[in-house]
Amino acid sequence: MAVTTEIFIYEDDRSDAMALSNTIETVAQNRQITVHVTTFNHSNDLLQATETHEPDLLFLDIDAGKNEPDGISLAKQIRTWSADIPIVFVTCMQEWALLGYEVQALHYLIKPATVQEMEVCFNRLEKLTGHRLKKQPSISIISDYKTLEIPIATIQYAEVKGNTVTIHLPGRSIPSNTSMTSLEQQVGDALLRCHRSYLINPKFVKHIDGNDFVLATGERIPIRINGRKSTIAQYHDWIMQHMGNAED
Fold it and tell me: Do residue 102 and residue 203 come from a single domain?
């Protein structure tokens, strides 16, 4: 199974975001690391995604424009619930970089970041963690004639309608021609088959209401009627097992 390093970028300028993402991809290829880069241009989307699933590395644009908070302000919010996410600030002005020390920033980059500068950033991260970037299991799917690598931990649920399996992630949904059977084989026991038409990630479940799993987003995922008790038992087993792994 492929493994992926999750990277978030907060950048309001499309061309700057693409340039930064391309530089990250180049460094990842040089290091033989598989990365999944998600770009956010709205702070609310970034905060929701970061709180739901902490990335391995977070790039924040310090000057994000008039209608969005700057990267320093966002970093301070994120630090209220996570002291561990490695944060790299991206800026056009070197003097802004000094503010990064307030939120224990890993590094800062001056636009446009070069491959050599990005290598320094990755080196600092590996030194900080004491090992190479944390790698997460991912799956390969075909969507719109393209092969995508999706970290399993980011999947909230998957549903099948007709010949299309839609994979729901925080902030977006991806239609795929991959069959539900193939998807279930790839994810193993990381997701729970709670219904003939649904796979669900138990970590996104807020509570059970009748015959539904209710996600933190308010979405309701049906639980099979025949086999409801065993499905709920599997859910509780999953929670206990993965809570134990997290503590280890």
Answer: no
